[in-house]
Amino acid sequence: MWYFKAGKSYIKKYKNRSISIGIGIVLGIALIVGVGSLSFSAKEQNIKQTEYELGSYFVRYGDLNDTQVNDIENIKVNGLNEDNSKSKNNNNPNISKLGLLTYYDSSTPDSDDLMNIVSVNRELLELQNTELIKGNFPKKTNEVVIEKWVLDNLEVKAEVGQKVTVDLFGRKKKETFVVSGVLKDRAREKSSGIMEIFLNRDLKKSNEKTDAYVRFEDDKNILKNIYTISDALGVDEEHMGINGMLLEAMGQLEEIDYNLIYSAIAAAIVLAIVVYGVFNISIIQRISEYGLIRAIGGKLSDIVKLLLTELLLIWLVSLPIGVAVGYLVAVLLKKVSGNVFTEIAVELSTISVPIEIIGFASVVSLLIIVFIVVLLAWKIKRISPIDEIRGNIKSSVEKKRNHKMSRKRKNNSLSYSKTIPIEIKMAMKNVLRNKSGFAITLISMCLGSVMFLASSFYSDLMKDQQKKLDEVSRVNTDFKISMIITKPMYAGYSAKDIEDIRNINGVENVDEIRSLYARMFLKENQILDKEYFKKENEGTYTKNVLGGLLVDCGNGDKILKSGVYGYNDTLLKKLDKHLAKGNVDLKEMNNEEVAIAMVPKNNGKYTVGVNIGDKLKVTFREDGISSEEYLKMTDKGGKYITKEFKIVGIVNELVDYSDYYVDDRSVNLVLSNKQFEKFSGYKNAQIVNIEMNDNANREKVAKQILAIANRTSGNVFSDLTEERMTLAAMEENKQMFINAIIGILFLISIINIVNNIKYSMVSRRAEFGIIRAVGADNKMFRKIVLSEGLMYGLYSGVISVIVALIVCWGIYSPMAEFLISPKFLVNPITFAGVFLMNVGLGALVSYLPFVEMRNISIVESIERTE
Description:
It is a single chain. The protein is α+β, with helices and mostly antiparallel strands. Helix content is 54%, strand content 18%. It is built from 29 helices and 23 strands. The two termini are 27 Å apart.
């Protein structure tokens, strides 16, 4: 165990070097733990946000018969046998929540309020992110629970005991229900205007088939569990609806967590370069000692054990410090970023450090240490013991190459010796003399800066995308009023209604949207993704209500169910920011027969071939009837209006659209309101978005808007202020974690630069002592040291900026086709700041060792190892 004692002695003898290595290990571990824990917490926040918007269920099994419902209820209680057959024993049931929903009836098409009445169990409400805020779950057959916003639309007080009468379409009669409870509003249904009334399915039976919403206890093998249950029930993929966005947020749609891998690679590189760079300098300083060990009979394996012991001892001390530093910095930066970047009250999520991340950091750092020891052992093996004792670590090939390089530098130096001060020339020679050491130091310095710049670019890119997503989301306004699908297309809110809303005290902006349920004529060769439309045509709603989204007319002709919208100038300007191709010219949009096409994408590829300058022909029924026969193209005797529009812009998302008919699954056209009216003859708006002043009285404004909207039959009113604030708060909370990650990378960048330059200077204390011994005074010595520091800073700054630009493009390029109107833009202030930081730190950090060394005598400086 001599190498254990020797390792401890080396650590004590070379304190500066040991501290620098420890700092490198702490940085690597802190990077993994800090970024890993923040990424994990940000992921958890993203999951919460997705569950808030879409519900917490993993999968929906549709159209189950009574036998299948009994089977899945039994699976929840008893689990499955190994052969996926139903078990009679409690075999670790995997289903944690099972929500059941059975269609009961709906209101008649000519009703003023379009709603569905469904029978559900309690867990269905939980899985759809709602809960009782008043009253109880139905205990009688005629009792129901209803969301508050639905009661507002029905002009019924949100109180227990209120009565709601519905003219039922299927049962051909009116039925009165008693409100036993008021539910919290669901964000998705509220923003889409989908009104539902909930019965207790245990009390109110129906002959209709049932949809089962499922969440599993095990969140690691969700897809496997989904298909295991579907096989046991005999449910095909056509009748399965996977909550894809939630599973994506949970990382279940990718087998590999790439974010963790990227963090690990970055941390491993930082750790490897820093530790190797510092330890390599130490090896050069103590090479003669290793030569003596080998000369007296020691083996290379003994030196390997010595190196490994020394690094492992430092690692054991650095590991808990790195974990603690990573966690504490993450917590601190999260609080700082929250105070700096958050403008609204946010319920902060706690930062958690999964044990897997600590284990991962430990293994990665340990493997790096083993790799470094092997690399250094290979380097030592190439040098003979005699050369080691003499301190000669260069091979004969390297000697010849260096001899030629020195002659070349000598000749070249004649040309600039008169123009470059002697101090700078000495600094350049000192720095460039050991090119491999200089390169390793530079790489180590650049890594933190590159990671910081790349993460800042990614954060800015995602912020821009989130802003655009917010503009096209269903919760992009304070109040929304819209028309139900069963009303004629010409029905809607009049110019007087809109003007009255504009005049409400507290209303800041009003945008009106007009819409048509149209049909678009296409050719076979314009359909680029046939599988996409085949899958859409198989959907329950598309098949049963629309009779298909894309219809084959024979002879290569196709009819695509399509929406045509009229936007006012304000919305057209907003849409301009989302253009993938073309541009929005308001004068052209208002005066010419042109349109912007919204073309859906599938896996980043366009589904329909539409280009700028193309003309698309659409048609609709002049009388505006939107009957079931019209939607299915089985209507007869109607007169149609057909028009071609030239495409001047292409977008992937619309600022707003109707959730009825084809929503955003098909090609939609956007006209100016002026051209829409000219084309259709319809003047009323079907959707109106209202923005409120910050200091307005929300309840008062909402009541006045609802009163005006209720003048129109078929109106649906949604107050989205609370949902908008909640989603904004969640997004701010998630952004805090991202800001904290960037903060960690920034700190690591600074510490890494300081650590490398400082140790590079300190390790050459004897060399600087000789420079002073041959006549350099403090002024000249200071210039030499500062020149070296500036050279490190300048090289590091330039290389960091260049490499970061390449990395940023590498991040942007594969993502571009999936982004909304993307643009490759870097923040010049951030890049300039990092460059200046490198230069400034280079000068500052090099000056600190100078202050320390000038106070040491020349003899002591030459004699001291560090």
